[in-house]
Structures are given as structure tokens and as C-alpha cells.
Automatic annotation (TrEMBL):
Residues 12-397 form the Major facilitator superfamily (MFS) profile domain. InterPro entries: MFS (IPR011701), MFS_dom (IPR020846), MFS_Efflux_Transporters (IPR050189), MFS_trans_sf (IPR036259), Sugar_transporter_CS (IPR005829), Tet-R_TetA/multi-R_MdtG-like (IPR001958). The keyword Transcription regulation does not apply. PANTHER family: CHLORAMPHENICOL EFFLUX PUMP RV0191, PURINE EFFLUX PUMP PBUE. This is MFS transporter. The lineage of its organism: Bacteria, Bacillati, Bacillota, Bacilli, Bacillales. It comes from Polycladospora coralii. Keywords: Cell membrane, Membrane, Transmembrane, Transmembrane helix, Transport.
Length: 418
């Protein structure tokens, strides 16, 4: 069922872009103050690392559920509730930090609540963006969403370092301060131009199975590629962070600025990529394969260079490759799936992306004693992804109809709305 289509404004995209920025702050902003939390609460490094892990894992698990709900009850409701839980978790963590001498268990439970809330934020904002924008404008808008996500990653450790000068728990109170205005703007300033009427559950399940039967091969490699790209990027950021501290004695805000270079590159190239594939869908597959190749090359070069400017140049190259791949995957996945199932499919993609970010640093940390072998192994995985992407990803013009439909599924009794 659909209502009259509106033309989204720049304000609409600005509001939607703020959602992934807020989500990214949930983890990255805490990283600079983790040592202070460990000292103050007298907990071990492993225990303090759970403040990150028990945010990420609940989010990754809950994202598919948020996707299903967004298909059934609407995108805005899910995003608004997600932001509300996210802000409430931050407020509770802040109160638990100042109550008495601080309660580690209460902060940990608050972080779990935040992670559950985060599941309904950025992945569903991507779905809503895809609903609101059509054809080439969709590619450009999703490129901006990806750029905003990267900019959030750039700003969060710097912002965390600055707030840490006030107190180790100051950032917890920032979450409700930021989320409440965004909820109000989302609710009153954005109208869902296309409204879904939830299919009967048996039909919904049937359509999901049909999607994976028809599109399963290229969806699988697309999901895997997105996860591998983010695994590689954040694994390398972990490696570079440790290397900068041990070799060049860079810490705090200064190190954060250096680490922001690949993320700035990712942000700028994501914006550019979104504009390019909006004008020429034929470039999509080329950008995916080329971007994966650039990341693989960067990984093969990285362990052989020790000078700071060369290391930072190679990480910027990784950001460039990631900026070529991610907006293309976002556009392909959201455009090829019909409106009534777009939430769950896009959310599954968001979940594997989240796992890639979460798994990169610990796996790199566990294997960093053999860096050359680690980087060669990671590059080999990317080369395998290139091979399967070349053979399994169809020409995007064959995946998208005029209004973003899957042409293959449209031939099956037109199950999907525009």
C-alpha cells in the first residue's frame, strides 16, 4: 500500500545521516577512557573490554529482529524506539558511574541496553533512506549515509578524549542529550513516503525464502564482502594504533588524529562513489572489484614499510578502497529487494557488517605476533572475495528495475511494491 511520494529535502538527509553518527559514538568514544575506567572501578583489562563487547554482540544479534519489525510496523517507529533505548542506556550508565564509587555491573547492563537500542538505528536508517530516494538519488543518498558513518568514526575517539578531560563518565550523559533532539526531528520532520502494510506472516516467510533462492548467491558474496572490508579496515586500525604508540610514542588526541586519516579517506570517497554510481549503475560492479583489489594491495604493502608517512598513506589507500566498495553494496542490496522485505535483508547485511567491525581488532590482536603472515592471509581472503564477486554479482542494471525493484522477482507475480 502506498501514499503520495514526497521529494526528500536536504534536511531529511541530514537527520537520517545523524543516526549512524550517533550509533558509532556508542563504542569508539569509550576507547580513549577505557584505562581510566579500569583504574577507577578497579577491574581488569578484560573486564573493561566487555563494555565494548557487550555493546557490539547484542547489537549484532538484535539487528535482524529490528529489520523484521521495520518491515511489519514501519521504519520510523523502530528507529525512534532504538534511539530511545540507546539514550536511556547511556543515561543509566552515567548514573551508575556516579552512584557511590560506581557500579561496574550496572554500567555493563546499561551497555547491553544501549547495544539493543543501537540495532534499530543506523541499519534501519539505511532502509528508510532507500525507501525515500529513487534511482540515482538513492545511490547518492546512501553514499552520504556511509560517509556520515565514517565521519562518526573519525570524530568519536577525538570527542571521547576531550570529554575524558572532564570525567571518564561524561560521555555517557552525552548520549541522551544527542538522541532526544534526533528522535523529535525524525518523528516530526520526516514522513515515510511509502508505507508498508505488513504481509501475512506465512507470505512474508515465503517471500524471504524466494529472495534467497533467486538472489542468494550474489547476496551472500555481497554480505561477506562488506564484512571482510570492515574486518580488514578495523583490524588494521588496531594494528596501526598499537604501532604508533609503541614505535612513535603517540597517544591521546594526537594518535586519534592520525587514525582518522583512513576514515576521512573512506568518508570522502564514499560520497564521491555514491554520486558516480547514481549516474552510471554499470560502474557498481567495477568499483566493488576495484575497491577490494585496492584493499588487498594495501594489506600486502603495509608490513614492509616503517616510516610514518608511508604507513599513513597506505591506510588512506585502504580507506579509499573501502569507500569504493561499501556504498555500492549498500545500493545494490537495498535496491534489489522489494519494499516489504527490504528491512530484514538490509538488516542482515548490517549485522554482518557489525560483526566485521567487532571481530577485526581482537583477531588482529591475537595474530599480530606474525604480522606479515597475518596481512598476507587477510589479503588472500580479499582476493577470494574478488573472484566470487566477479562471477556471482550480476550487472546491477539487471538487478534493479526503474523503481528499484528486483526484475527477477517482479516477473514472479509482482510481489513487491515500488
Amino acid at each position: 500500500m502506498k501514499t503520495q511520494q514526497q521529494t526528500p529535502t536536504a534536511r531529511t538527509l541530514a537527520i537520517l545521516s545523524s543516526v549512524p553518527v550517533i550509533m558509532v559514538l556508542g563504542n569508539s568514544m569509550l576507547i580513549p577512557v577505557l584505562p581510566a575506567i579500569s583504574r577507577t572501578l578497579q577491574v581488569s583489562p578484560f573486564q573493561v573490554s566487555l563494555l565494548i563487547t557487550l555493546f557490539s554482540i547484542p547489537a549484532a544479534i538484535t539487528i535482524p529482529l529490528a529489520g523484521i519489525l521495520s518491515d511489519r510496523i514501519g521504519r520510523k517507529k523502530v528507529i525512534a524506539v532504538g534511539l530511545l533505548l540507546y539514550g536511556a542506556g547511556g543515561l543509566l550508565a552515567g548514573l551508575a558511574s556516579i552512584w557511590g564509587d560506581g557500579s561496574y555491573i550496572a554500567i555493563l547492563l546499561s551497555r547491553i541496553l544501549q547495544g539493543i537500542g543501537a540495532a534499530g538505528t543506523a541499519p534501519i536508517a539505511m532502509v528508510l533512506t532507500s525507501d525515500l530516494y529513487q534511482q540515482e538519488k538513492r545511490s547518492e543518498a546512501l553514499g552520504i549515509i556511509e560517509a556520515a558513518n565514517a565521519m562518526g568514526k573519525v570524530l568519536s575517539p577525538i570527542l571521547g578524549s576531550i570529554l575524558g578531560l572532564i570525567s571518564w563518565y561524561a560521555m555517557f550523559f552525552l548520549f541522551p542529550i544527542l538522541t532526544l533532539p534526533i528522535i523529535l526531528l525524525l518523528w516530526y520532520q520526516i514522513e515515510e513516503s511509502i508505507h508498508t502494510q505488513g504481509l501475512p506472516l506465512h507470505q512474508y516467510k515465503k517471500n524471504i525464502k524466494k529472495i534467497f533462492r533467486v538472489h542468494g548467491r550474489w547476496l551472500f558474496i555481497s554480505f561477506a564482502s562488506g564484512s571482510i572490508v570492515l574486518f580488514s579496515l578495523f583490524g588494521v586500525l588496531f594494528y596501526i594504533s598499537d604501532y604508533l604508540e609503541k614505535t612513535f610514542h603517540l597517544v591521546g588526541v594526537g594518535k586519534g588524529i592520525y587514525l582518522s586519516i583512513p576514515l576521512l579517506s573512506l568518508s570522502a570517497v564514499s560520497y564521491w562513489t555514491g554520486k558516480q554510481i547514481g549516474h552510471s549503475a554499470f560502474l557498481t560492479k567495477r568499483f566493488i572489484i576495484g575497491g577490494l583489489g585496492v584493499i588487498a594491495l594495501s594489506l600486502l604493502l603495509l608490513p614492509w614499510f616503517t616510516k610514518l608517512y608511508l604507513l599513513l598513506s597506505i591506510t588512506a589507500l585502504m580507506g579509499l578502497g573501502s569507500g569504493l566498495v561499501l556504498p555500492c553494496l549498500n545500493t545494490m542490496i537495498t535496491s534489489a529487494i522489494g519494499l516489504q522485505e527490504r528491512g530484514i535483508i538490509t538488516s542482515l547485511y548490517g549485522s554482518v557488517r557489525f560483526l566485521g567491525v567487532a571481530l577485526g581488532p581482537p583477531i588482529y590482536g591475537a595474530l599480530i605476533s606474525s604480522p606479515k603472515l597475518l596481512f598476507i592471509g587477510n589479503a588472500t581472503i580479499l582476493l577470494i572475495a574478488i573472484f566470487f564477486s566477479y562471477h556471482l554479482i550480476e550487472n546491477p542494471q539487471h538487478l534493479r528495475g526503474k523503481n528499484g525493484h528486483s526484475r527477477l522477482l517482479l516477473r514472479k507475480k509482482r510481489l513487491y511494491s515500488p
